[in-house]
Amino acid sequence: MAWPDGEGFPKRRELLFGTRLVPCYSERPKTLDAMFRAAVERAPGNEAMVDGARRYSYRDLDAQVTKAAAALAARGAVQGDRLALVLSNRAEFLIALLAATRIGVVAVPVSAREQKPGITGILNDCEARFLVHDAELTDRMPDADAVPSLALRLSVGAAAGAAGRFEDLLDGPDAALPAVAWGEEDTAVILYTSGTTGKPKGALLAHVNIIHSAMHFEECWRFRDGERAVLAVPASHVTGLVAVVLAMVRVAGCVILMPAFDVNGFLALASRERMTNTVLVPAMYNLALLRGDFTRHDLSSWRIGGFGGAPMPEATVEAMAERLPALHLLNAYGSTECATIIAVVPVGHTRACLDAVGMCVPCGDLRVVDEDGRECPPGATGEVWIRGPMTIRGYWNREDATRDSFVDGYWRSGDIGSVDAQGYVRLFDRKGDVINRGGYKIYSVELENALARHPEVVEVAAVAHPDPVMGEKIHVFVIAKSAALTAEDVKAFCRAAVAEYKVPDHVTLLEDALPRNANGKVTKRVLRDRVLSGELGGGPAR
């Protein structure tokens, strides 16, 4: 299917990674540094970043990036080295990231929520030579001898005069930059997958992958020069890094940093900074509706509200439209392996896509295949495979995982979905999350979508509950607006909304939030473990 909004940027078929003949944007920067330098040259006075009271124009940011790059090179950083970034949403994250790309160093962002064993494991896996971290996270950093490859550690936010301050790199004298010759297929960033199903793997994001994703956002969501985006999701995750930070760099836009999300703080910041777009998870929109006072803030500049990681209940769409009529709520289906973006809802198509994640991006090739790898007809259900210039070539030092996950350049997503004749992509479940109740296959997403329409339900997740007779039964975890909702209310609502065999057998009403990874996706593995252990974390299962 052709993208509905016209031809967009010029494209041509190119051979990538020596094996993949795919449509590509023919007029594109070749590296992330080239993309950033183009923004600096085109709009040096545009505001590039806001971090509290600190404001940077593109000219200012370029100067800081050059200083950091030269200082890292002077301290031994050479092309191909790995620089780990364990930083919250702060200016130094973007400065360090862009400095790495300027001298050919590979950036390895790590979630600031990760604990010491996880950080140590990632740094050892990627053989990091350099580490930049928040000073307040020092206790979670690896012990001195735990990562033999580390040559230099730098902290951000330490007291003046302390050793190893990243800020001191930015205050030093100007120095020459080393000559770097690298291509667009070289790795720019290693992002470790969120690990919802097991040990994280290091996804090798090449320059060509990230640049195509940034251009996909520009084309599909009609981003313009000087856009302003609030970053309220982690910069260390592919959504924050590509869909917000680097998508803004592509259009010489401004990234407004928010270290931690709180509803009224977000609304106030968005109003004060005249935010035009952002990407959140649906739970954040739900919280905004539950706790936010929209009447106190002028949000008329907000045009694009992207979301992903979970479906958006129709009631949420309606409520947001009532409060912000000019806002386009647009779903996006993405993954680390595709540099975030696979399918998106076009501007103006929200109503047509309430149960879909959008249409495949212009340079993408999305197929739905059966268990034998044969392409399914329109509307049929199967596994979603994706290929394109945004799809990575594999995982760091994991030939086995690369071989299992990629076929002829297609990434095997593990998502069960369909594509209709109009090109709309729908997702039903992860392959491992399908519930087999006495031979009936039940897609948890279908049940979750149905329950999300209950006026008292804030969030819901469905998982399998082992059963000696049926094999598996259905267990739902529900976050309710109030204590008035009962398990029987949930079951009664389902009896009127879904087939009898899809009605949940067990209901747990939670007072706290559903467990999530850094991208806001519910970690169903944790919920399944709770079911097996009997430690459900809420009221008794009924």
TrEMBL record:
GO function terms (MF aspect): acid-thiol ligase activity
Key word Nucleotide-binding present: no
Record domain AMP-dependent synthetase/ligase: where: 36-396
Keywords: Ligase
Pfam families hit by this protein: AMP-binding, AMP-binding_C
Native source organism of the sequence: Azospirillum doebereinerae
Name of the protein in question: Long-chain fatty acid--CoA ligase
Domain AMP-binding enzyme C-terminal: 446-521
Upper classification of the organism: Bacteria, Pseudomonadati, Pseudomonadota, Alphaproteobacteria, Rhodospirillales
